[in-house]
TrEMBL record:
TM spans (from-to): none
Compartments it resides in: Nucleus
Keywords of this entry: Activator, Nucleus, Transcription, Transcription regulation
Known role: Component of the Mediator complex, a coactivator involved in the regulated transcription of nearly all RNA polymerase II-dependent genes. Mediator functions as a bridge to convey information from gene-specific regulatory proteins to the basal RNA polymerase II transcription machinery. Mediator is recruited to promoters by direct interactions with regulatory proteins and serves as a scaffold for the assembly of a functional preinitiation complex with RNA polymerase II and the general transcription factors.
Quaternary structure and partners: Component of the Mediator complex.
Protein name: Mediator of RNA polymerase II transcription subunit 10
Name of the gene this protein is made from: MED10
An example Gene Ontology CC term for this record: nucleus
Similarity comment text for this entry: Belongs to the Mediator complex subunit 10 family.
Amino acid sequence: MASSLENLETQLEMFIENVRQIHIIVSDFQPQSQNVLNQKLQALVHGLQEVDKLKSQVKDVHVPLEVFDYIDQGRNPQLYTKDCIEKALAKNEQVKGKIDAYRKFKANMLLELSRTFPNELNKYRALRGGE
């Protein structure tokens, strides 16, 4: 059985196709096309009703507002996910670099402290459990 999201996707695809066909009919309108246009407009209304019926089944789906910005800009909304992953990877590398720098700093600081204050550092390590 198809999921609620698949049903919604199917309805939206049919709706989009219907709008595309209406656009074709209207852009080169001929009087003999009136009946077909009426049928397409009725199908458009029916499609909106079907989408409205499905809204309760997908009410827990949250879409980031940025996705709508992508759509408004004529960009593929799937690029949003790709961009988010790329940003997360870049941020991960940046944070990893900071962690590595702090580890090196800690190692150097402990080395210098052991040279300058060996007794105090031994007491510190004993308190910290031998770090």
